[in-house]
Task: inverse folding
């Protein structure tokens, strides 16, 4: 069960929360790079792998006209897993430091990626994008 507590979402220990950067508010297509994604889709799964809840949140990071790094901003959404095509090395390190798994997407379609995830077919992303040039 997901509850709201002063702007920070709390996830029941029995659920798994997956965060995926997406290109539009419909949450269907993965964005190519985490920090530049316009939105983040969040999926809460029950133990049996069924979706309990899903939401799409706008990226409030500096690449989208907001403040701070996207990887810092989404920590308040409490993901257990982040699935991406690519991410900079600081983002990967930040998630690893918070015990959040960063996995490499196998497809550009969210439904396909989630299916492969539930089959155990995604691998860990261990190296950041070479083109991640942050000031």
Result:
């Amino acid at each position: 069960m997901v509850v709201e507590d002063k702007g920070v979402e709390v996830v029941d220990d029995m659920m798994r929360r997956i965060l995926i950067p997406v290109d539009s508010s419909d949450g269907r297509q993965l964005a190519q790079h985490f920090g530049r994604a316009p939105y983040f889709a969040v999926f809460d799964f029950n133990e049996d792998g069924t979706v309990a809840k899903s939401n799409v949140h706008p990226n409030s990071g500096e690449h989208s006209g907001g403040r701070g790094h996207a990887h810092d901003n989404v920590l308040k959404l409490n993901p257990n897993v982040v699935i991406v095509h690519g991410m900079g090395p600081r983002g990967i390190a930040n998630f690893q430091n918070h015990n959040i798994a960063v996995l490499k997407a196998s497809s550009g379609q969210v439904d396909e990626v989630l299916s492969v995830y539930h089959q155990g077919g995604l691998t860990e992303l261990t190296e950041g994008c070479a083109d991640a040039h942050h000031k």
